[in-house]
Amino acid sequence: MFNLAPVPVPDLTGRTILVTGAGKGIGAELVRILHARGARTYAGVYPVDQTEALPEGVIQLKLDVTSQSDVDAAMARITAEAGRLDVLVNNAGVINPIGALAEIATDDLAPAFAVNVMGVHRMTLAALPLLRAARGTVLNAGTGAATTAMEGWTAYCATKAGMQMLTRMMALELGREGLRIFFLGIPPTDTAMQGKIRASGLNPISQIPQDKLVPTNVPASVMAHLCGPNPSMTEVLLDVRHEVFTSMMDLPA
């Protein structure tokens, strides 16, 4: 269904990178790649007790992106230890609640907005001093659900659409300061979130067999590529399936 493969990742030695939502799935795989390519890698994880095994040398931070105290503590530690931040990857995200729009209480949408939109704003605002100094990069992990309504995904579609517009605002207002801003659409990937989607039985995405989903190392490699000092893309709104990325993939004929 998805003819995709990992892309090459440049040498990241000397770069300091923070990834939120790094405890599992795509975030954990991204952290592994960044570390292997030489980056000083900070993994923001929450909940801490649900974290996958990460390589020795990766610096783990308890980082709930809805908590200002967690965010402030993370940035204070990075400032003290590294003194710089080249890339912020806003990868933390939630899909719940899944269900019919008419059956979801309005207040039940708040946690998704708190993570997927406000959490991205909170992290970016806190990281700005270091990012400005480094003329760094903000990479927001997106999805096609930002532009396509999917049954049962009121919270996810609405918040990812909000994240996409927030990304465009960052590009408009921060891009002129030399920061690079990206929103990367990620296709259906074999993660725990996708397990929740399958269990719901709602919309066509839930019907994709697990063995047909994209492996986590594919989107993670594209994200790692964009963390390099000279990423090949200058557009703001991107997708893993963009021809510039697929042209780098070693795909069967």
What's this entry about, in short?
This protein has 253 residues and is α/β, with parallel strands linked by helices.
List keywords for this structure.
single chain, 253 residues, alpha/beta, Rossmann fold, 7-stranded parallel sheet, 7 strands
CATH class term? Alpha Beta
- CATH fold group: Rossmann fold
Assembly of the depicted chains: single chain
The CATH homologous superfamily is named: NAD(P)-binding Rossmann-like Domain
Cα(first) to Cα(last) distance is 15 Å
Question: What's the number of extended β-strand segments?
Answer: 7
What fraction of the residues are assigned to beta strands by DSSP? 5-15%
Give the helices and strands, then pairings.
Layout lengths: L15 E4 L5 H12 L3 E6 L13 E4 L5 H14 L5 E4 L19 H25 L2 E6 L11 H21 L5 E6 L6 H9 L16 H10 L10 E3 L3 H4 L7
Parallel strand pairs: 1-2, 1-4, 2-3, 4-5, 5-6, 6-7
Helix pairs in contact: 1-6, 2-3, 3-4
Structure, described:
This protein is of the alpha/beta class. It has one domain: NAD(P)-binding Rossmann-like Domain (Rossmann fold, 3-Layer(aba) Sandwich). Helix content is 38%, strand content 13%. The chain has seven helices and seven strands, in the order E-H-E-E-H-E-H-E-H-E-H-H-E-H. A seven-stranded parallel beta sheet has the order 3-2-1-4-5-6-7, with helices on both faces. Strand 1, helix 1 and strand 2 form a beta-alpha-beta unit. Helix 2 runs parallel beside helix 3 and helix 3 packs parallel to helix 4. The two termini are 15 Å apart.
